[in-house]
Design a protein that fits this description.
The chain is mainly alpha-helical. The protein has a domain of about 170 residues: Serine Threonine Protein Phosphatase 5, Tetratricopeptide repeat. The chain contains 22 helices and twelve strands. The radius of gyration is 25 Å and the shape is globular. The two termini are about 35 Å apart. It holds the Pfam family SusD-like_3. Keywords: Cell outer membrane, Membrane, Signal. This is Putative outer membrane starch-binding protein. One of its GO terms (cellular component) is cell outer membrane.
Length: about 600
């Protein structure tokens, strides 16, 4: 069992407790290490230990949630993922049609239902929670999938070679599993925020139900719009039932970022996390993936997205005259304080040899100038050069639940000033924003946000909810699913990877400390007397992997990672060809 290794240390203290229990057990008990059916399913400790194997279904740290948004409309990155690269995704290259984890869960459920342990329903709730997660991921990826709720024998041809079930029927079963979990899991909260509790199940239900509601509403080809509101209602109901959480608040200029640097997750806002440990040598690669110039995707925010961060007075930045040509050092001033806690801005420092050092955006590490710091330690070594981050890996937090609820209420046309104040207003207040935007529903749609979503949304309230979802949750792994559920896949391809505005070729001070940090040039690389300055060649070129300026010798930084391709068939992955050959009854998804 990989319960204690690498990416999933969700129950370290639990495992220690079980080992202690085993070492002091009654001599008449069946020894747990015999791994007999009776030893596992005949005692609560056996059920608890077995249930630990399901945690491998949660997002790990080797491919952390902080990487998922690299494939979205918010981020410029190195290269193009196979999902979007031209002709890269096909039935031959597709993957993910694996059912091993489901068999493990179903085997546990079958045997636990026959157990005489008095607390077995709690563990059945945990198992069915994970089965819901398993199927939610499969439906998102493949659409129609076989529904299997038992262990399959090698001679069970009906199950092994059966057809797929309609995705909407599967999601009804997912909802039933989630409701069972919420009703039967007895652990309401967990001081380590690393175990599945009733509140965790409720929070995940808000995420899953919101996805399903939006899919039914916006994927109109399936004619399920009439059923969408039922799922939006489930979001609101479950969000209202969650207790014991609030937004983490210290001071507005640091509270947001603190969440992502804590070695032990803040329990006021964090609902579920993976606890990392230097002593156990269990790490993530956050610093290395965001900062290394050679490792990973080298993600940077786009200017198109950064423009959506409000001014501190609650007005849109894009309502300012001349915002399009505002240099970086000026555009980041007096903005939503989450911006300076998400990217490097004027007063950002890093620690070198124990001393703070001013650290402007580094164009040897960023493509757009909007260089992320959200998950990154400020100490450079060894975190930048090795995968050594041991800050808690947050999977679910209260802010997302508030955003899920706000979106559902708006879609149901039930958002009120009071609900706005407690959801969007609360998030903005934490970010230092002031004004009527904290307590009053917006009445006029921001034209920039209408354009941002390609005219898909025009409701003033919904546009502000979606603005908030982007700024609050960026680099937490939700954006690609958001684009898919809203049926906005075209933004994967059409969004420009643009960066800061450059008035002309030459040297620039990016953080206002009086020292130039970057030199944009064309042709022959110039010389400079400024130590450590980054040189960026913006000579005209159509080559992949080059930075240009949008107007030749001035304009926005434009990054070209390579050609991206979107087609609506990509809302679902193709069934992998080897699996379809083994079972022709699976068929194939449309367009593949």
């Amino acid at each position: 069992m990989e319960f204690m290794k690498t990416k999933k240390i969700l129950s370290y203290t639990l495992a220690v407790m079980l080992l202690a229990t085993a070492s002091s057990c009654d001599l008449n008990e069946v020894p747990v290490d015999t791994a007999t059916n009776e030893a596992v399913f005949g005692s609560e400790s056996g059920l608890e230990l077995y249930a630990g194997s399901f945690y491998d279904l949660l997002p790990g740290t080797d491919v952390g949630v902080f990487q998922i948004d690299d494939n979205s409309d918010l981020v410029a990155r190195n290269g193009v993922d196979d999902y979007l690269a031209v002709n890269a995704l096909s039935p031959i290259t597709s993957s993910g049609w694996s059912w091993t984890q489901l068999r493990n869960i179903n085997y546990f459920i079958e045997n636990t239902e026959k157990s005489t342990v008095l607390t077995k329903n709690h563990y059945l709730g945990v198992a069915r929670f994970f089965r819901a997660l398993f199927y939610f991921d499969k439906v998102k990826r493949f659409g129609d999938v076989p529904w299997i709720d038992k262990t399959i024998g090698v001679d069970d041809d009906a199950a092994l070679y059966g057809a797929r079930m309609n995705r909407y029927e599967v999601m009804d079963k997912v909802l039933a599993d989630l409701n069972f979990a919420i009703e039967n899991i007895t652990l309401t909260s967990d001081p380590s925020v690393t175990r599945i509790t009733k509140n965790v199940a409720r929070a995940y239900k808000t995420r899953i139900a919101l996805f399903e509601a939006s899919w039914r509403k916006y994927h109109t080809e399936d004619n399920k719009q009439a059923t969408a509101n039922t799922w939006y209602e489930e979001v609101v109901k479950e969000a209202n039932a969650i207790t014991g959480f609030t937004l983490h608040s210290t001071t507005p200029d640091r509270a947001y970022r603190e969440l992502f640097l804590a070695k032990s997750a803040y329990t006021d806002e964090t609902i579920l996390s993976v606890a990392l440990s230097a002593s156990l040598q269990v790490y993530s690669s956050a610093n290395r993936r965001f900062i290394s110039p050679t490792y990973g995707n080298r993600p940077s925010l786009t200017r198109r997205f950064v423009n959506t961060y409000l001014n501190l007075d609650g007005t849109p930045f894009t309502s300012k005259k001349g915002y399009e040509t505002t240099p970086f050092v000026e555009e980041v001033k007096n903005r939503d304080l989450r911006l300076k806690q998400t990217i490097r801005t004027g007063d950002y420092t890093r620690t070198e040899n124990g001393a703070p050092v001013i650290a402007p955006p580094n164009f040897t590490q960023t493509y757009t100038g909007y260089q992320p710091i959200k998950w990154c330690y400020d100490e450079r070594f060894p975190f930048d050069d090795e995968s050594r981050n041991d800050n808690a890996h947050i999977i679910m937090r209260w802010a997302e639940v508030l955003l899920n609820k706000a979106e559902a209420l708006t879609e149901l046309d039930k958002m009120t000033d009071a609900e706005w104040t407690n959801t969007i207003g609360a998030l903005r207040k934490r970010a230092g924003i002031t004004g009527a935007t904290l307590t009053s529903l917006p009445t006029t749609a921001d034209p920039y946000m209408v354009s941002f979503f390609g005219g898909k949304f025009t409701n003033a309230v919904l546009l502000e909810v979606l603005r908030e979802r982007g700024t609050e949750m960026v680099f937490e792994g939700l954006r690609p699913d958001d684009l898919r559920r809203w049926k906005l896949g075209s933004l994967f391809q059409d969004t420009p990877m643009n960066g800061m505005y450059v008035p002309a070729l030459g040297e620039y001070d990016l953080n206002g400390d009086g020292k130039n940090d970057v030199h944009f040039y064309q042709g022959t690389k110039p010389t400079s007397t400024t130590p450590g300055i980054a040189f960026v060649d913006v000579s005209p070129s159509t080559a992949v992997g080059r930075i240009q300026l949008s107007k030749g010798t001035s304009g926005e930084v434009m990054w070209n990672p390579g050609q991206r391709e979107w087609a609506d068939k990509k809302y679902l992955y193709p069934i992998p060809e080897p699996d379809r050959i083994r079972n022709p009854a699976l068929g194939q998804n449309p367009g593949w």
